[in-house]
Structure formats: structure tokens, C-alpha cells
Amino acid sequence: FTGDLEQEGEKELMQAYDLAADVLKVGHHGSSTSTSPEFLEHVNPKYAVILVGAGNDYGHPHREILARLSDIDIYRTDLLGHIVLTIDDKDYSFDIDESILRAVAAISDPRPTQNSTIEASVQVVKGGKPVAGAKVTLNCAYKSSTSTYVGITDSDGIATIPFSIGRASKGHKVVVTAEVEHEGQQVTATTSFTPR
């Protein structure tokens, strides 16, 4: 388990120990300051676990870390909730609640300039698998009004919704709420941006 270990600490561990493991608890909630390509090669995991809160202000896990882990099965608490890893003498298994619809939202530019176009991406999963065809209603709470946009998740469980922020008030944090509906279940995810 790497905790908040960053790349410098990873180098020290690689020099001192054989770190080969089937399961890697990804460092620092999936921050780009951890989980270097060299560290991944050294550990060579089959599974990665990322402990991260949904809609966190840091954008964790960072896209470059998810790209580095693309050939590994990933278990994320923001998408799966509680993850239980059971280990016995000969094997291990992951248990997750496969009945709950989950969503996480992110903004392409958290500090856009006025009149720019940005994208909200909403990822929807159920039991760790992407949900295609979920309706996503995006509500942007500006200082004096709310704008609504609608999208549908694709086969990867992602709805990407571009929108113009117009003359949104500089320095005012705009909360973006994604309301997701699929097969009678509903879930909400939030993110935000602050125009500069």
C-alpha cells in the first residue's frame, strides 16, 4: 500500500525492495505525482485499487494515471463504493456491490476564461461495468441563473457534454450537478469550475 507516496519515494522503494505484486493500491488517490511508469513496470500488477472520493476538488484520479493503468483491471471507490479484497492462502477476490448505479463527473477546464466552451464528462457504471444509454441531465448553477444540458452515455459509459460558459461571473464557483437516470435508478454527481 503506497499511501500518499510520490515518485521520489517510489524510486527509493524500487532500489531497496522487490515490489512485484498482483494488486497495487495506487498512490495519492491517483494523482499524477505518483505511480510512475517505472514503478508500474517494477510492481507489474494485475489489479489496481484507487481510493478516491467522487467529485473531489483535485480531479483525482488524473487522466494520465488512468491511461498508464489502461492494461490493468482498475477498482475505484468513486465508481464502485466499498471495495473488499479478500485474501486466503491460495487466492484473492474482490467484492463490490453490483446493484448500485454510480456516477462521477469532471470538467475539462476548471478555470476557463469567459465565453469559452468547456466539456463536462460524466462516467456511469453499475457493478464496475460501463452503463450505455443512461440519460444525463447537467445543471450549471451560475450566479444569477441555471443552465441545463442533456446527454446520453456511450458504450464506454461516458457522456461528454460541451457547453459555452458565456459571460459567467469571474471568480464565482459554478457548481455543475449531473443527474443520471437508467432503468429506474437515479444517481447524482457534482463537479465545478470557476471562470477567470
Specify the structural class: mainly beta
Q: What's the multimeric state?
A: single chain
Radius of gyration: 19 Å
Number of helices: 4
Number of strands: 13
Residue runs with pLDDT of under 50 for 5 or more positions: none
How much helix is in the residues? 10-25%
Largest sheet, if any?
Answer: 4 strands, antiparallel
SSE run: HEHEHEHEEEEEEEEEE
Categorize the overall geometry: globular
Q: What is the average of the pLDDT values?
A: 90
- Report how far the terminal alpha carbons are from each other: 38 Å
Strand content: 35-45%
Structural description of this entry:
It is a single chain. Strands 6, 7, 8 and 11 form a 4-stranded antiparallel β-sheet that branches. The protein has a 4-stranded antiparallel β-sheet with strand order 10-9-12-13, with no helix packed on it. The chain has a 3-stranded parallel β-sheet with strand order 1-2-3. The relative contact order is 0.14. The protein has helices spanning 7-16, 37-43, 63-68, 77-80; strands spanning 23-25, 47-50, 73-76, 84-87, 92-95, 101-107, 117-126, 129-130, 135-141, 146-152, 158-164, 174-182, 185-193. Strand 12 (174-182) and strand 13 (185-193) form a beta hairpin. With 196 residues, it is mainly beta.
